């Protein structure tokens, strides 16, 4: 799916071809269009659509840096994509987009637009949209929770970088789980520790799981634990 986002910005335009005796500052405006093509997996649970009136929860999963690129097959090596490929069953829809840029951050505006499109075209309960991500995708999950605080009913972040200065922007009524290995050399556990401490200080509902002696790859044991999905299913969005 190609996602197009429009951005407006103010530009300072320097007209080098015009002679002038002193410096000038010109205020202007330009509409900038960016286009992002996002490949994705979309998982449907058993009995989806049997009841035409039923609506279903949806989990948005954001992968790590190693699965970025143009090969959707390689995307199935880790996290929820790997479990879906193995045939593990889930009680909700799962939207798993692929970041097309191996050495760039997630374009979370594009992901949000994709999520809105999938939500609108499927039988999705908008009060039960969940969010999770690992590593680079964990950082993107934090970012989406900050930028779209009224969208998600619950958040689970696995070994992700945290936007500490903007912690207060997250919906205070949204339950959060954080997972990290204490020997992580790629993204230090201090990223999660400082974020969790800050959120708890402000009264947020946060559960923090530290894997003793574990490095960066703690997503296998996190996502293979079906208790996580039971927890998600218990959550429903409460708006401030």
From TrEMBL:
Q: Name one molecular function that GO assigns to this entry.
A: hydrolase activity
Q: Name one Pfam family in it.
A: DLH
Specify the superkingdom. Bacteria
Give all residue intervals belonging to the Dienelactone hydrolase domain: 111-217
Any idea which UniProt keywords this protein has? Answer: Hydrolase, Signal
What protein name does the entry list?
Alpha/beta hydrolase
Organism, by scientific name, is Arenibacter aquaticus
């Amino acid at each position: 799916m190609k996602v197009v986002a429009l951005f407006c910005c103010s530009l300072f335009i320097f007209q080098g071809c015009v002679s002038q005796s002193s410096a000038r500052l010109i205020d202007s405006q330009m509409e900038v269009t960016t286009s992002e093509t996002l490949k994705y997996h979309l998982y449907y649970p058993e009995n989806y659509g049997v009841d035409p009136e039923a609506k279903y929860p949806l989990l948005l999963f954001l992968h790590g840096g190693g699965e970025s690129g143009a090969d959707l097959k390689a995307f199935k090596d880790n996290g929820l994509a790997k479990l879906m490929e193995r045939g593990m069953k889930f009680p909700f829809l799962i939207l798993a987009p692929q970041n097309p840029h191996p050495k760039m951050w997630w374009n979370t505006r594009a992901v949000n637009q994709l999520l809105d499109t999938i939500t609108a075209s499927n039988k999705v309960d908008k009060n039960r949209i969940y969010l999770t991500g690992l590593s680079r995708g964990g950082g993107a999950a934090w970012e989406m929770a900050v930028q779209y605080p009224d969208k998600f009913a619950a958040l689970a972040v696995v070994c992700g970088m945290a936007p500490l200065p903007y912690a207060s922007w997250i919906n205070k009524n949204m339950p959060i789980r954080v997972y990290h290995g204490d020997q992580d050399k790629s993204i230090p556990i201090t990223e999660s520790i400082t974020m969790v401490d800050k959120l708890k200080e402000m009264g947020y509902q946060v559960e923090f799981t530290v894997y003793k002696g574990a490095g960066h790859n703690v997503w296998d044991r996190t996502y293979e634990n079906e208790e996580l999905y039971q927890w998600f299913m218990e959550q429903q969005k409460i708006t401030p």
